[in-house]
Batch of 3 targets.
Target 1
Amino acid sequence: MHKTVCLGAALLALAAAPALADEAWTSNLGPVIYDDEIGEYAILLHYDGAVPHHTFIRGLAGNFSDRGHFTGYWSEQEDVGSTSPACDVTIIDEFGTATRHWGRVEIDFLRPGFPTEWDARIGSCFEEPAQSWNGRLDDNFDYDSFGPQEGPSPKQH
């Protein structure tokens, strides 16, 4: 009986929490998804052509009801054709990947609850985040076609 009650409570808790990648946005840098979580970081993913850009937002992981202003950073792997300028300093991102292609991010969610849209500013390396990046909810997001795109990279961080 005790195992049944615990299992039932666990299933209810999982059903109440939004699943990862249940938030997708259109943005001025292309489609973006809430891809994963590592520790306190939520990981947003978008592609610049074939190059994946991961944005690590500190304090957002598991936060579906008290969203506001957050900071973090973005990174991209060097060995996949990075289009962003290389920084003088190498970082190790949350995946454990060393890269010189990274920058700071400040993001403001427009409402505190899930799902919500956001306005962000990004910068390269240690620059103050100044480039605008805006995410608007995309309820008809096509997850099957999301991924690296061949051809020239239309956007850059």
Target 2
Amino acid sequence: MEHPFVVCHMLTSLDGKIDGTFFGVPETVPAIKAYGELRSFYGCQATLYGTTTMLGGYAEGKVGQLPTVMSTPPRADWVNPTGKAMGNFIVAVDPQGQLAYSGLSIEKKGRPAAHVIEALTEQVAPEYLSYLQNQGVSYLFAGEKRLNCTLLLEKLHRLFGINKLMLAGGGIVNGSFLAENLVDELSLVIAPVADGGNGVSSFTQVDFLPSWPPTAFHLKEVQTVVPNVLWVRYTRP
């Protein structure tokens, strides 16, 4: 099956954290700016986030209790043609159907508006499908109880024409793609700050998902993009 080229693009501390108090110190500011500017380097049509990341600044919280509807849509993929025509996408991994939206797209400061595509599993309530269609949000089914990343990528390529996808966390969803050998390139912008807290790393293993062995990458390039900030690129062998 054909699927998009996947680059995992992350901002980390010196000790490999992707969240934590280091984001709030002045020394991290140049790294945050460089990370944002480097997003355009890959020319990705879509960025994929996990549920926690979506709740952290993209979705409008959680939907809560949805009203019962007389007729629910079939449990099949749904593509909003207006959203598809935008050509720029945010893919939200939302296995149980929790995320709320104000419309068919999300527009972050400094970025073009992106149509939302929900990545669902068969656990989702039928009322949530009606909710997404009313909001104009496209959705794809990819798995029964946990996300089938390979199937999701195949559908993104076939139904939306996505050839390059940026994987941007969190650690659990990144690890899920790595477990299925789907990360083609790893891009790390490293802030010159050690955190030492309990934040997660770029790839995280959890008990409720299958474990995966250590995965080797080959160093492709290292640059000092601004003083004290490294951009390190790795590819799969």
Target 3
Amino acid sequence: MDIGLIVTLVVLLGVIFYIVSIYNSLVKLKNRYENGFSQIEVQLKRRYDLIPNLVEVAQGYMKHERETLEAVIQARNEASALLKGAAAVHSTDSLQQLSGAENQLQSALGKLNFVMEDYPDLKANENMMQLSEELSSTENRVAFARQAFNDSVTEYNTYRQSFPPVFFANMFGHSQDATLLEFDDSEQIQAAPKVSF
């Protein structure tokens, strides 16, 4: 056999294996960010299941604070409905709607926390303390899941946009960047916390 033919075959096989590895990497990274979104869904579902319990306990103590409680339930229902329709991981509009609903829910929960501060009996109630702790824990889990999702999306987008995968991405069905899940609380996050005694 001709050495030139052997070298050509080896180079051709190397190129084929490299292209296959690009395809496999794109699939792996896409699956990772889709799984990341699923983890957000799990944590948001947990939150949505806890909120009615939290409100039910609070209602026994705060008959006259109906507006706050109703705002929490309404925001929870809207966010929950959007999450149920969330094949959202591939749709920028769906992610923005979910983000908006989550912002409304966080705002309503913040108002509920302020109301709780005005009612020492409510804060001292064992059920309320447990539910508040669960909700706080869930908020941390949501934040962690959101961060993991956005990290996966960034890793996917970086790989898809890099050279040479950028030449093959469209051909392999990866024509668009994935969308980050961003909430409107970035200003609050960047602001220094206020502490008073």
